[in-house]
Write a structure and sequence with these properties.
Blueprint: H1 3-8, E1 12-17, E2 20-25, E3 32-36, H2 40-50, H3 68-83
Length: 86
C-alpha cells in the first residue's frame, strides 16, 4: 500500500464490463475488486453511482451550518442562471 493511501484512504474508480462491476485504486496501489450482477444494466448503474466524487457536489451536499457561505453562493449562481434564461 502506498503511503498516500495509508494516510488519505484509497481513491477507488468504478467501471462496468458486461455484468461485472470492477474497481481499482486510482493511486495505483494495487487495491481493487469486482462484483458480478444479474444484468449489465445493474452493473452500469452501480458503477455510475459509486464512481461519483464528493467534490462534484460541494455546495449542494454540504453540512448546513459549516458550509453555509458555499451553499449561499451555489444558490445565488442557480438563481442567476435561471434569471438569465439558463
Amino acid at each position: 500500500m502506498q503511503r498516500r493511501c495509508a494516510v488519505l484512504g484509497h481513491r477507488y474508480r468504478f467501471h462496468a464490463d458486461g455484468a461485472t462491476m470492477s474497481w481499482n485504486c486510482e493511486r495505483e496501489c494495487g487495491h481493487g475488486g469486482s462484483k458480478t450482477y444479474a444484468t449489465p444494466d445493474e452493473a452500469r448503474m452501480y458503477a455510475a453511482a459509486f464512481d461519483r466524487e464528493d467534490r462534484d457536489d460541494v455546495g449542494r451536499r454540504a453540512p448546513w451550518l459549516g458550509m453555509f457561505p458555499l451553499r449561499m453562493a451555489h444558490t445565488l449562481r442557480h438563481w442567476a442562471g435561471r434569471r438569465d434564461g439558463g
